Amino acid sequence: MLDKLVGLAMLVAATFVFLYYTIWTLLMPFVDSDHPLQNVFPPREWAIRIPVVLIILGATVIGTFLSMVMIKSNRKKAAKAKAAAKKKA
Amino acid sequence: MTRAQQTISIALLVSSLYLSLYLELIPLPTLIQTAIVPVLPFWALVSFGAWVLFRLGWGMLTFHDTPEAYKELMEEVKIAQADLRAKGVNVD
């Protein structure tokens, strides 16, 4: 039951994000600056800043995860090599 | 034609089309040139993210769980792990 709710939430979030961002970037330039619809959207520089920040954040998270996995596996390999060398000697 | 070649050729096609718009090789109204064209790659990226999220959510919503198959699979995994451990493979 919970995963169906999560799936529905993701659907709604994806639709909302797509519609909001599309209207923000592709429609608002053609809307007069004193139209009340402008109050629903922040200034347009933010339409660039937010995705850039998210990309950098995502790359950081993925890079951190990758480095942690590599360090762990190297440590395991070194420990194994040490154990094998001890056994030999 | 491999899938990689296909993807690269489509990517090159789309980037050359966008570059022709960005470098003003096609005459466009000023508002579109200054406010819409620079924003198009970000819009494409955000729309792609929204599409992927939609597909994931849809999959989660319409997934049909099979508990008996799950139990059977876990049993098979245990048997395989015991077998490999006996043969000396590290499965932990």
TrEMBL record, chain A:
Gene Ontology cellular component list: dolichol-phosphate-mannose synthase complex; endoplasmic reticulum membrane
Molecular-function annotations in GO: enzyme regulator activity
Pathway of action: Protein modification; protein glycosylation
Membrane-related topology note: Multi-pass membrane protein
Any one GO biological process: GPI anchor biosynthetic process
Iron listed as a keyword: no
Swiss-Prot/TrEMBL keywords: Endoplasmic reticulum, Membrane, Transmembrane, Transmembrane helix
InterPro entries, per the entry: DPM2
Subcellular location: Endoplasmic reticulum membrane
Pfam family, one: DPM2
Highest taxon above the source species: Eukaryota
Transmembrane keyword on record: yes
Residue ranges crossing the lipid bilayer per the database entry: 5-26, 46-71
Role: Regulatory subunit of the dolichol-phosphate mannose (DPM) synthase complex; essential for the ER localization.
Quaternary structure (record): Component of the dolichol-phosphate mannose (DPM) synthase complex.
Similarity section: Belongs to the DPM2 family.
Protein name per its UniProtKB record: Dolichol phosphate-mannose biosynthesis regulatory protein
Organism: Pseudoneurospora amorphoporcata
UniProtKB/TrEMBL annotation, chain B:
One Gene Ontology CC term in the entry: dolichol-phosphate-mannose synthase complex
Subcellular location: Endoplasmic reticulum membrane
Pfam families, A to Z: DPM3
Primary subcellular site in the record, as a coarse category: endoplasmic reticulum
Keyword DNA damage appears in the UniProt entry: no
Keyword terms, alphabetized: Endoplasmic reticulum, Glycosyltransferase, Membrane, Transferase, Transmembrane, Transmembrane helix
MF (Gene Ontology): glycosyltransferase activity
Transmembrane segments: 7-25, 31-54
Function noted in UniProt: Stabilizer subunit of the dolichol-phosphate mannose (DPM) synthase complex; tethers catalytic subunit to the ER.
PANTHER family for this protein: DOLICHOL-PHOSPHATE MANNOSYLTRANSFERASE SUBUNIT 3
The protein's name: Dolichol-phosphate mannosyltransferase subunit 3
UniProt source species: Pseudoneurospora amorphoporcata
Species classification: Eukaryota, Fungi, Dikarya, Ascomycota, Pezizomycotina
